[in-house]
Hints:
5 helices, mainly alpha
Amino acid sequence: MTKGHVLLLGLALLALGGILPRVAQWAGVGELNAGLVSSALLVLVVMLWVASYGWRVVRGEMTFMQMRKQYRQRYDQATDEELLRRFEALSETEQQALLSSTTADASEPGASSARQTAE
């Protein structure tokens, strides 16, 4: 949810708070009870809204987190495509030498932990 959506939702809640007591009075609820009912409903709506926000925070579904994941996926895809393009541009012997050097690095003890710390 963007800042603009939050502002629009806040304005909608403000308008609902002004309209709801009149609707309740029109429906036959007394003036005092209409104010209580509308206040209780608005508090409930705001509490649910805050709870949904907390739920999205816990699950990591915030707007920034989603944008970050999308950026990372696009970056990884572009990097993979660039590496594949460069690998395919190598001659067959250079490809084999590169492949044998990467498999030799992987078979050395501690190579995977050194690679993980570099990432």
